[in-house]
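The aim of this short unit is practical: by the end, you should be able to scan a pair of folded records and say something sensible about each. We start with the first protein, listed as its amino acid sequence and then its structure tokens.
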Amino acid sequence: MTRTKRFVIAGGGRVGLQTAENLAGQNHEVVLIESDEERVAELSDAYLGPVIHGDATRPSILKQADLTDADAIAALTDETGTNLAICMEAQQLAPSIRTLARAETRTDHEYDEVVDATLMPQYLGGDHAADMLTGEGIRTLVYPTADLDIIEVTVTESAPVAGRQLDEIALPEGSLLLSTADREELAGPETRLEPNERYIVAVESDVVDEVLNLMRG
């Protein structure tokens, strides 16, 4: 069972709110920080979790979010420089915290010494940001409809399906194993789910947890 984690999201715009809602939907604890007072009022109506009003580049504001008790912080404002500054300040206050910064442009590894991960424009969605933050071997590829997810899952060694063929597994109704993650092989009855290998699964929202329990234990 995935343990509950605690995340701090700096920036309550579209991406920040979507990320917070996605993480909260996975039963994680999330604190939002937003500098715009009008946006804070909107967030209070749209988001049920705690929202801090203030500039996340300021240590006094980050301290309110209690970073020492957080697993990671994601700086998701519209300004790359602001996001990097937030992450650097967060690391000063909580050296072990994981950091994710939204950036508009970069060359490969440009920010590797500043942050642990960078969210690029082509991935500017709260689903992708949430996947990067949780780091649970699960990656959302696309949300085709409100009720259907296409996810990439790594099978753990202790998973109930590990080492078994697909025709030996009773996947729940509303789910379909599509292929290996490299898309080189479509899944069939004789596909064996190997530990530490990644697979792409189409799954209806109401059976996601059941599928993840089978593939991750």
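Turning to the second protein, read its sequence before its tokens, just as you did above.
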Amino acid sequence: MMGSSHALSGAAVWLTGSLLLDQVAHFHQTPLQLAVGTAICAGGALLPDLDLSGRVTRNQGGATVARTFGVLSLFVAECVEKLSLGVYKLTRMKHDPPRQNGHRTLTHTIVFNVGVGYGTLALCNAYGKWAVMGVLFLSFALALRGLFEKWAERAGWIIVTLASAGAAYLVYERLPGDRGYPLLGLAVGVGGLVHLLGDMLTRHGSPIFWPIPTGRRMWRCVGLPQSIALTAGDKTEMVFLRIVFTTVAILSGTVLLVPMLLQRFNIAL
């Protein structure tokens, strides 16, 4: 799937999950918490594609996440791609095909994305609001790139960076003073797992079970049967799925926010 589709799916899943928790478990969030969680989940849904690098010296190519901070993020993506390819070569079994790049290998596993979510949680718990500010900055930048792709392309990475830094600082000023930020780690992890589900709709699938062998392969990509699988960037994804994701996100957000606004302004239902 394309970057914008991944980001939209992350936002839709987070808002839908928040609505279910609100209605079933009576877990209520403030509008700020909802907005932050949605942005982080949307940004986290782009992270697995950090293994798709482009041409660093020309500042070209790469996945949406790789272009977020220009040449710097393209260089990071190049390193992640080479690391992923190295892990693939070290752990592949006899029937795993040879590969020349690391896209859709290490970063497209459940282990990696759960680990990133837990690592985010541990980092925020250990270092408090400064670590949280860094997570917010990176997540907001990715969310802007994914959810507002055309604007981000026109604005360029410097404007995206400044806008993300400003948004992170504003949220930072309104965060509680303790070190309990479990929703941040959860949002990053959920976003990554949503990405895997999205890629499993496509022809290539994702090697979600690594490092558990399946049959005679370590890196078996799991997804829909080829006869019904999507092609990344086709009309089904770019039109139908994006409309579905957008509609679900808007409806869930509306159901969550309208009662809060009515209560705030003392308007009876």
